[in-house]
Structures are given as C-alpha cells and as structure tokens.
Design goal:
Helix content: 25-40%
Strand content: 15-25%
Strand order of the largest sheet: 3-4-5
Distance between the termini: 61 Å
Structural class: alpha+beta
Number of helices: 3
Shape: elongated
Largest sheet: 3 strands, antiparallel
Length: about 100
C-alpha cells in the first residue's frame, strides 16, 4: 500500500528529501536524444492546423478528418480531441435549409 505525505513521520520525510537532493545533485541535466526529439516533434505537431471537411450528402452533414488527424468524428456534429474533450458543432437551421 502506498503512503501519502500525511502518513510519514518527520524522520521519514527528511530522509526522502535527502534522497531526492542526492539524486538531483548527480543528474547532469541532459536528456536522452530520443526523449528530446519526441518532445520536440509533439510540440511541432500541436502547432499544425486541424482540418475538418464539412460536406452535404443529400440532406445530411458529413464531417471528415484526414487519417493522421488527432480528431475523431463522432456522428454528424461532434469531434473528439486526443485528450477526450469534445467539440460539438451547432448549425443554424437556415444554413441547413439553404443547402
């Protein structure tokens, strides 16, 4: 079972802090190249615009995203982002009737 800070005695807490300081002092601040490149690629990827194509198929709206998109289409009005947040589109009836 894991402990929380509230469960530790003062001595145990001091010991953990000392261990952390020792380990931190030994770290030279470098990151493995693959970690740095993956992080950089993720930052650059998030800067890219997200494309959503909206088409009318008969009297219905169809949403499409490219296969590499971080968006997932759910139904005809909802987009789901990678982190689980949903973006729901509301269309004015006059817009739908004009199509």
């Amino acid at each position: 079972m894991s402990q929380t800070l509230d469960d530790l005695t003062n001595e145990e807490f001091d010991h953990l802090i000392d261990q952390y300081i020792e380990q931190s002092a030994q770290w030279d601040g470098t990151l493995p190249l693959d970690t740095m490149l993956e992080t950089w690629a993720e930052i650059e990827r998030r800067k890219q615009p997200l494309l959503v194509r909206v088409r009318m198929v008969g009297d219905r709206i169809a949403l499409e995203t490219p296969p590499e998109s971080p968006l997932t289409v759910r139904g005809s009005r909802t987009l789901v982002l990678e982190d689980g947040r949903e973006l729901t589109l509301e269309f004015e009836k006059s817009l739908l009737q004009a199509a």
